[in-house]
Structures are given as C-alpha cells and as structure tokens.
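Handoff note, outgoing to incoming analyst
You'll be picking up this chain. Sequence as last confirmed:
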Amino acid sequence: MELALYANTLTQDYDIWRKQRVNSQQVSSTNYTFQNPFSEEMPFLFVKEKAKKEEEKAAQTVIELRKKSVKYKTVSTELMTSRSERQELRERIRNLEDTLQAHKKQLDTLLEALEEKNGQYDRDTRAYERALHEENENLSYLINEIRKVAMHVVQLSDEVEDLSCQFPPNQISSISEFL
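Most recent structure output, in case you need it:
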C-alpha cells in the first residue's frame, strides 16, 4: 500500500515536472530573432529561465517532501504498531509471571504435603518394624517355651515309660485311683 501511494505521488509529480520542462523548452521562432545582446528581451528571458529553474527546483522539493511525508507516515504507523505490540508483550509477560508464581506456590504446597506424607510413611514404617520385631521376639519366646514344654513332655513320657516298666499294670490303676 505504501509503495502504491509513493508511486502515485511520483507519477503525478513527474507529470507536472515533465509538462513544465516541455513547455520551457518550446521557444517560439520569434524569440530567436530577438536574441540581440543589446535588446530588452534578454533580461526578461534570463528572469524567465531563472523562474523556470526555481519552479523545477520547487517541484523537486515538493516531490522530496511527498516522499518524506509518505516515509514519515510509514514510520509513524510502524512505530504505533511496534508500541502496541510491545504493550501486548508486556501484558503477556506480566500474565506469564503471575501464572508462574501461582504454579510455584502450588508446587511448594504439593512439595510440603509430599514431605509430610513421606514423614508419616517413615513413622508408620518404623512403628510397623518395631511391632514386627516385638512379634518376632514374642514368637521366638513362645517357640522356646513350646520346645521346653515339649522336652518336658518327652521327659515325662520317658519317665512314665520307666515307671510303667517298674510297676505292673494293676498297680498303675491303683496309683491312678490314688491320685
């Protein structure tokens, strides 16, 4: 779009300048006959030529001014766009920072909860280990007691056998009645 504006401006300015240039180069045949250095026409032609040069210079200046005006508008538009984009980026950065802070707090909370759970699991594990150790000790004690009782039963059984050999069976029945 900028290029089209610029090209349109150049075309119009060029057309104006070209017309002036063509008109300035057209010299009537009568002007050639009066080119006497002493004639009054000479200063007028000099002034006229100087005016044409000034007009050409003015036309060039107008062209340059229009070019710079178009460039200024382009740069101004780009600047406004850049400022707008920069503001949007600032807002987006601010939103991202807020989101980051919220996630950071959430992670800290989750980490604290996880550490608390780990601590509780460790305490529970130690309690279970202690209880298991106590149960193992109790079982060992009971097994030892059972072994002792079993040995005592075996011993008693052996003694009963010994006694049964010493006493006849009818005496055993009278002893059992006695007991």
